[in-house]
Amino acid sequence: MHHSRLQPAAGNPVVSIIMTAYKQASFIEESIRSVLSQTCENWELVIVDDGSPDNVGEVVRPFVEQDDRIKFYHTENRGVSAARNFGVSRSCGEFILPLDADDVIKDSYIEECLAMFREFPDAKVVYCQWEYFGVTTDTPPLSYKGYKNLLLDNSIFNTAMFRRSDWNRTGGWDENIMVGREDWEFWIRLLDENAVVVQIQKPLFRYRIKAQSRNVTAKTREATFSTDDYVYCKHNALYRKFFGGSAIDNIKYRERMLGEHPKPLFSRIWRAALKRE
User: Fold this and answer.
1) 18: phi > 0 → left, psi -120 to 50 → alpha, else beta; which?
2) Alpha-carbon span 13 to 42, nearest angstrom
3) Separation CA 63–CA 71 (nearest Å)
4) Distance between CA atoms of 50 and 45, rounded to whole angstroms?
């Protein structure tokens, strides 16, 4: 494939790739190399070490020294949302593409995303099909079926491209969400029922599946339900608009639609929201 360096305004890169790293030293080189192989070269890669206890800085340093498009920052551990927001604040591209340090993108992904934004200038988000790799390659189908469905569950993975102006408008990722699902809550605020979402029908993003112990899986599932409670309460007016009823009714609606049976943890935020109803 030919390499196309698009001309950015005022010498800035067109795309800012934001990569956060926590305990990903063994995977981040592969992720960085997937960025270096992009057919569109007009990007910057901002890597944020989120207080990681491993040697991620040692792995990243040679890439920073060899390519001035790559920047590296170390912060205290405050969670992925805070790390991503920090990374965006240190970047300058017109478009933003988050990429976790254990995932990879295929070499035409950035170029094809930008082509979609040119073809669909009203698009808010552009992403693609995905494929799992690692301990399983059994990839579930993924497609955006409208905003109401998005409110029930996420259908856009984190490594999707959007405009910096929309990140500014939303205020970034919610730093109260530290254990996953932060991307879902972010899309809820960035999009609305009229938003255009474009999905490239090619698997240009590879999502790594790692082995997890049963204990970790249970904790993750419990944390997910707790985060869902938080999202329902934070956006309860929005859920009332689309589904009617209260936050707890939305949980029941989701159970019926998705066949899930979450057990809400009734966090302090959850209880406070119920008291307001």
Assistant:
1) beta
2) 5
3) 9
4) 15
**The two three-digit tokens of residue 111, written as one number:** 């170029």
List of long-range contacts for 33-36, beta carbons under 8 Å, 24+ apart: 33/104, 34/104, 34/105, 34/106, 34/107, 35/99, 35/105, 36/63, 36/67
- Tens of pLDDT, residue by residue, the chain (277 residues): 333 333 344 478 999 999 999 989 999 999 999 999 999 999 999 999 999 989 999 999 999 999 999 999 999 999 999 999 999 999 999 999 999 999 999 999 999 999 999 999 999 999 999 999 999 899 999 999 999 999 988 999 999 999 999 999 999 999 999 878 999 999 999 999 999 999 999 999 999 998 875 555 666 777 777 888 889 889 989 998 998 876 566 666 666 666 654 444 334 443 444 444 4
CA torsion sign for 272, 273, 276, 277 is negative
Cβ–Cβ contacts within 10 Å for residue 176, how many?
14
